[in-house]
Fold these 2 entries.
Entry 1:
Amino acid sequence: MRFLQSTIGLKILMAFTGIILVGFVLVHMLGNLQIFIPFQGISGEAAIDKYGYLLKSNAVVLWGARSVLLGAIVGHIFAAVKLTNRSNAARPRKYELHRWFSDSYAVRTMRWGGVLVLLFVIYHLLHFTVGVDAALFTEVKHCGPLEGGAANTCFVRENVIRGFQQPLISGFYMIAQVALGLHLTHGVWSLFRTLGFTSQQWSERSRILAMSIGGLITLGNIAIPLSILMGIIK
Amino acid sequence: MSGTLNFTLKVWRQNGTKDSGYFEEYEAKDISEHMSFLEMMDIVNEKLEAENKEPIVFEHDCREGICGSCGFMINGQPHGHKSRTTTCQLHMREFKYMDGGTIVLEPFSAKPFKVLKDLMIDRSAFDRVIQSGGYVSIRTGSAPDAHSIAVEKDSADKAFDAATCIGCGACVASCPNASAMLFTGAKVTHLGLIPQGQTERYSRVQEMVNQMDSEDFGHCSNFGECTLACPKGISLDVISQMNKDLLVSQFKG
Amino acid sequence: MTTEDYTTESNNTLRNNGPEIDPNDPNKSIESAWDRHRFDIKMVNPANKRKYKIIVVGTGLAGASAAATLGELGYNVLNFCFQDSPRRAHSIAAQGGINAAKNYQNDGDSVYRLFYDTVKGGDFRSRESNVYRLAQVSVNIIDQAVAQGVPFGREYGGLLANRSFGGALVSRTFYAKGQTGQQLLLGAYQAHSRMVDAGKIVMKTRTEMLDLVLIDGEAKGIIVRNLVTGEIESYAADCVVLATGGYSNVFFLSTNAMGCNVTSTWRASRRGALFANPCYTQIHPTCIPQAGDYQSKLTLMSESLRNDGRVWVPKTKELAEQVRSGAIKPRDIKEEDRDYYLERIYPTFGNLVPRDVASRAAKRMCDDGKGVAQTERGYGVFLDFKDAIERDGEDAVRSRYGNLFEMYERITDDNPYETPMRIYPAPHYTMGGLWVDYNLMSNVPGLFVIGEANFSDHGANRLGASALMQGLADGYFILPYTIGHYLAQVPKAGFSDVKRPEFTKTKEEAIERLEKLLNVNGTKSCDVFHRDLGYLMLDKVGMGRDKEGLEFMLKRVREIREDFWENVSVPGTADGLNPSLEKANRVADFLEFAEVMVYDALTRSESCGGHFREESQTEEGEAKRDDEQFCHVAAWEYRGPGQEPIRHTEELTFDYVKPSQRSYK
């Protein structure tokens, strides 16, 4: 039996890659929230700028991490596409009428929510990681020497603020965070099921965990554009 | 007539697997609320037969909710909207709220479930899944005394719950992916939880998942529609158990 | 006219080919009979088994277990069922449990006690040797089922639980909640699936047997209809096993599944197999009464309900009338206006009298106009849990019967915690069936009959939890050995010549019959005839019978049959899926078979089991058996359409359990 070609094998692949991605999203959010930390000292360097520079300073670690993430994304999408195709083929005649028993919104938005998250990730990479000006509708300031200083830094804070001051971009980010949150509220629970945590206790625990992670990510990440729009962060 | 109900039935008619199929409407008049859904169908059919017209074909046998023969989509849900019910045990009193309305009847849809005629489908894929390994290999006459192995009551009860599957196919029909994981998982769990099923536990799960996949059922997204549609309320846990067993099987010779 | 006018008693009494039994000779005693017999019969060399082909029709407990076991032994099995999967056979609906003389409860059970109870329960109309063997192998069935993974109920210590059933003095019934039949059938189905996977069973689903093919007087094949394509196909084998269940659907409404039918056994009977004791049918006391004419089947509720429920009807017809019309509610009837008739008539056993006694009493009350079902005829009595709820609390009652109460409420919309249940007896199991010898072979060589389809072990009344036991005993542990005795004598193994004229001719006859059905072009659905026949059969050939009613039925059955062949409407064609045609074909056979049932009931002018013959009763109005005249099996030989069948007999001797009049007072 070729494990990875079975439906369950693919789901288990989705679960493991999902764990990596959830971990990343959590850490990423914690990093982002440093934007709320005020300027440090006289040098005027923002905590988040320093952190940004730190992440980029070691090429081996940076690209190592990036390739793990890229692999996880590719694996996750590969499995999703394969399973979606399979699912579509499994019901050639669509129902005239199909009513759901459950009223959970999260489960029904997994697939399109996932696609939305993917589009968002691409945009987000162009926006902040690659720094394509067009994505920001304005100039992106790349990492470089600090003004008047010797140390190098990244201008995360400045870029973020400049980006999110535009309601269109903030709006898109916020919608994407809701989609991501929904994706996680089902995804995290689902991955526990897929990995075989069967007991009633685990079912409840994983549901709480999934809700918390989904909620935390959405709220935490929305807080940033919202604060900027509202002028709390300037 | 007082105390009776009237409906229009919008029914999928399909003369054989190759036919393309279409919807046709029938009137069901003066239906007693104490009738079962299938008894209402009987009345419509008896009238059609008397007119020498071909009755609506649907599968049914025991009419007490245990053989698993009956089942079709009623207003978009397998066995209708009432939970833990087979079509034969669904009574018309449940439809009082829509007296005078239209009820849509369609066959379960999944690639392996070919329509044979009207609402009747081919579920032989389920048999093949069981044939691939859903058993304990014990020759008649070679069994040890029934009390030679005590079985913990908790696992015996859980195994029983999984074993109550009637193989009706509602899980597949309701699943957005047309997955048969609840059906397969139920048997894997039933036999995997009791001592008698241990010897073949890990080869069984591999064989059965393999067969299930090759029948072209979809995958599981843990949406949980199947367990809500299941007339016996088989728990989603059986799927999780099957996942675990399959994962573990990868590390056993 | 007298009874003798109807039947020609044949001089040939039937021999069952069983082992010689002598109660005084330990070497020929009933205890060692089965062992000796297995040694005495011929055997097939293990290496030769794969050369034989066996047809098994039916996949219930008997059919599936036989097919699986024969496959394991090496035979090639061709197995047929009309359902879409072997797992759907109606054995699946059995609720209560399965008896076995394990004595796990240490309450004094033994093989002998199970044997004794079964012979007595059958009202001394079964074969002692068969029943003893049944009790012997009962213990193996439990071992087998547990090893297959059948999830029987267990105690906290992990050992198997037992309950007592049907008033037995010991707890010997194994159960899996209320789904024992389902779990045992799935166990057999899984064993069967394993043999399908191994290639030893070729399974043909959605295939219905239309006729039996005899070659030189021996059963060598069957004609079937592929229900999907409509194709009429011939299959040949070295022998044929019928495991096609009972014929309760002759009553139209019964606890049987909609598809259960008599066609296979009746067609075999038309080809020469004797039909034994067709008038022995079991009417189960605790079913949900019929609610209307549209009703398609009756639902049984476990007999265990009578452990705590009290059966009653209102004391007067007037009160009953008011209950029927809904003018008064059952709970408003005062205690002194209630007649707890079972407790009144049978003070010792009370509500726990055997099935036949309880059923008959309910009918008598309703015939007297005291029925309480909310229908025109009002056939139903109350089963009240009020006292049990007051005594033990609602929770205790819920824990015992919760699922049954739920089922009752789902069907009737009445809540049994608040208002008494209404129950009425319904046709359930048929003890009659094709006559078989000790080897389970009919009088037609090569035709074996197992499970409910044969007549063997239950006599005139079946005890609770015995049917599952018999089906599995036949399939797992008896037939697989005894079949070898016949096969070993077959000159050449592997018969497969379906080109023989016998096949062609039988096939043509089958096709002709279907065409005839389709060409009647009448105006009545075949359900109309079935319903007519069924209601009359229940009324006149059910629990209570008299000569007048039976003579009326002889005429009436013929009239309905003639009407059927002139006015039935069977739409569609024969060359595809056509449930109307399937149904009409089955009903046509019920219409022929009903006649032999009536003959049997008419000739047996005694009361026995659940069959109360008005002319044969004690002064107190209880059933009176007539051992002088009727201590035998009656087996009927078909002689042609409209002709009176010949009655053969097999004398029953009781060397161990001496016949006595059953008394439950």
Note: The beta strands of chain B are 4-13, 22-32, 73-74, 77-78, 102-106, 115-117, 120-121.
Entry 2:
Amino acid sequence: MSAVAVEGVWKFYGDFPALRDIHLDAAEGAALALIGRNGAGKTTLLRTIAGFSRPGRGSIKIFGDSPREVAARRRMGFIGHGISVYDELSALENLMLYGRLYGLPNPRQSALEWLERTGLERVRDGLVREFSRGMRQRLAVARAFLHGPSLLLLDEPFTALDDKAIAVLQRLLREAQAEGKTILMSTHQLREALELATHVALLIRGKVVFHGPCTAEMVSDPGFVYAKYGEQ
Amino acid sequence: MQSMASSSVSVAAIPERRRPAAIEFVRQIFVVMVKDLRAEFRTKEAINASLAFALVILLLFSFAFEEETTRDISGGLLWIVFAFAGTLILNRSFAREQPNDCLDALIAAPVPAAALFLGKALANYFLVLAVELVSLPVFGIFHNVNWTRQFWQLMVVVALGTWALTVIGTIFSALTVNIRLREVMLPMLTYPILIPALLAAMMLTTDLVAGKPIGPDTVSWLKMLIGFDIIYTAVSVVLVEVILVG
């Protein structure tokens, strides 16, 4: 079974088609890098796959379920442009909140373990509004991984991360990949993404113009996909 | 890398705790409600504004109306204050989720939208109720009215009317969360729909403050209030998924 199966998906904002007849498939354990210029539809596609909005046409299946099914949502972890943690709560309270929402057997223990993993255990009781940008981003990473998702949807995950947060995220993504989890990430940081990717999809104006395995050529020259399949 | 490999934590899937669906639903409502109340008590931005607004309006009304007039219009006066002050709390309900895109994480969580809505509605309910329970004695003092003669019946009406205000305010807060002028739009959308509930609450409150218990001539207002609460709660629970996700 595919981890993610996107069949003929269209998404409209008014009359404007942000996604045009998208067909995409990610097998379990694959790491798919979604690349494309600004406004190509990467974020819209990821958000539609995550179930934040419904496609205008077509269907999306996450491990065989609709993205809005509870079973599918339980298996997804999402990092978007926002960090999705509450400024008014402490780091520990934030992670415990999500642990409870995901029905983890011991939310406090899971939260403490992830705070340790992301190097935030010393500030666990500090309010997020007092955190530096890098600390907030590491907390966002901990939130997304907290419930052990089988599918990670990452929208430009390396953008605006500090060195430590990049190292934490890369380490976690490699571990996730080694454990057979599926990763879908949109990115402009081609070098970081292609090092992890098993597959690449190039979006131009809401349409997938290339979808295939990540080759050595792409890794050595991140501009290769754009040069070969993109617009001049 | 060594410490990572030996770490007790793994990114492997953590099994979720299995509970009966109804208990799980109530638990999710409770988690969302506690989160909202905790966030509000940390900042106090909505409740402080709402309370200050209610007290200032009650003070200004006390200059505007004679004591006898106040008794005749006590229900209308109180519910106008409650509705306006309540809107300040309800406006923040879903807006609180915006700064760090927290609504995305809530929508992505394996929690039914109905649980999310009811959790938020209950948090709002307790906040609005707190403002009302502070406002009532202040109303009695400023307007020299003994409002406690039918205390328990008045509390029932306040509880039912507040739920009507909260359930409509919360669902429209979800609907207007992405609108730039949501502070203006929310009252414009909610007050017309609230007219039957506000009318019933006003009529009952005026009688109860005057010391008249709910009787055969006023019980129909109570029924209308209860019916309004049931119908709009059910409609909101059904529609919230569409409102949040489309």
Note: The radius of gyration of chain A is 18 Å.
